[in-house]
DNA sequence: TAGTGGTCTAGACCACGGC
DNA sequence: CCGTGGTCTAGACCACTAC
């Protein structure tokens, strides 16, 4: 099933969550772990590399690895899908399509989705909520080749990601996010039940397939009193960068 | 000097930047790269793993690696330091301390900086700008053990990170960022030259040493018309997570 | 079916850290 | 000094892709 190094990484993560290894304490040496799990040192190194990338443990040449944190950051799957993220928190995701229509791709659409300008693309305006409370307004544009699979989905489908996976086998694999803050406009305020000019957290994102083919791009606006983003950085995974406005 | 796998990773990054390998094209097979660079397959794999974590290339078992992007995301050093980030963009970073004083650590300070409540900690309010235009308001609290090195720094020092490295050898290695949006308060508006209630991008962050010891924590507020954040995700480095407000 | 990446092994040497 | 992690090698087998 899963690779041996993944099993070992999981066991170590669980041990840290159980506080068998407490924050600040040292992990056993690579050779000891290798002996304990009956694998070679290389396999152990694959496992601990995953935890290091997650920021769970730190390492310095010559010294034992140190446990840095116990709470795992959310998984990639939870990031990709609003519904999966909600479920992981024990809350119920809701969704409601407000408007849905085909429009010819603008120049911007064409660049972001890597298709020809004028190609009909599907625009969807969707409000999403946690336990019924609206927290997110999504303005999404789907590429022409995936639109036929999106169009027939029921307006109140709680997880579009899951539906697309079930129907087409599509897995969202890579994404680029640009995060800033905007004042709520009239439509934003109305649909999110906040006052006009309230600060909203805006995330503009492009989602692609595992092969790098763009699937959708979206302007997401979150109620900032309800949702925030958390980014963890380490020397190994430098995923966050500041950007100036164009 | 640098490890061989890092040299190879650098060469591949440059080749992609030069568009020797264009977006969408395939990288040579691992065995070919190994032969070309005169190293073993394992070393090549270390190199391409770095590019994969950066989101530059994608891979699927059985198929050649594919080039996904050409522009590299900013380096970790640029993220950690406002001045280094500005310089990388060809702009000049400015800074001005507005207020600086010692206060006893609150319970929150004590938890975030892992020290005892009541310990005197250094609070610094600093405005930072790009080419003279204010874009960022930093409210930073420094741990007691680093405060003596921070206190004597000139109020208009453009790079505190660089000064601390020069003076004490301290390297910021890990950080946790929570990002949301807030409306500008009276002081925010005044110091950033924006109207009250303007949306600001807020980043609350904790910086630690490589060993995981907290150095400082800060409430940073960016003018959202001037700065945004960009996050790249891949299956390998899941650094971004949504968070609900507590 | 041949090629390719994913996984794993069993060694080796070096640089750094802690005692 | 000895233990540890960082690096590297030269092989092996398997699962999956592309043709």
Automatic annotation (TrEMBL), chains A, B:
The keyword Cell membrane does not apply. SMART domains: HTH_GNTR, UTRA. Transmembrane segments: none annotated. The keyword DNA-binding applies. Residues 2-71 form the HTH gntR-type domain. Keywords: DNA-binding, Transcription, Transcription regulation. This is GntR family transcriptional regulator. It comes from Streptomyces justiciae.
């Amino acid at each position: 099933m899963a690779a041996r190094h993944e099993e070992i990484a999981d066991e170590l993560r669980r041990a840290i969550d159980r506080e068998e290894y407490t924050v600040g304490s040292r992990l056993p040496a690579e050779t000891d772990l290798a002996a304990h799990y009956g694998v070679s040192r290389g396999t152990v190194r694959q496992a601990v590399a995953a935890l290091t990338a997650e920021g769970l443990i730190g390492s310095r040449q010559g010294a034992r690895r140190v446990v840095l944190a116990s709470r795992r950051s959310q998984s990639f799957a939870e990031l990709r899908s609003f519904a999966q993220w909600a479920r992981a928190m024990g809350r119920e995701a809701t969704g409601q399509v407000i408007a849905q229509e085909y429009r010819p791709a603008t120049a911007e659409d064409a660049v972001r989705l890597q298709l020809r300008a004028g190609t009909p693309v599907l625009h969807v305006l969707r409000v999403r909520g946690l336990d019924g409370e609206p927290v997110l307004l999504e303005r999404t544009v789907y590429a022409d080749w995936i639109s036929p699979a999106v169009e027939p989905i029921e307006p109140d489908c709680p997880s579009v990601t899951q539906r697309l996976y079930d129907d087409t086998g599509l897995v969202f694999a890579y994404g680029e996010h640009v995060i800033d803050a905007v004042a709520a406009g009239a439509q934003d305020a109305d649909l999110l039940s906040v006052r006009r000019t309230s600060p909203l957290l805006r995330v503009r994102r492009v989602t692609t397939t595992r092969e790098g083919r763009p699937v959708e791009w979206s302007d997401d606006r979150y109620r900032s009193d309800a949702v925030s983003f958390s980014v963890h950085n380490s020397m190994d995974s430098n995923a966050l960068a500041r950007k100036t406005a164009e």
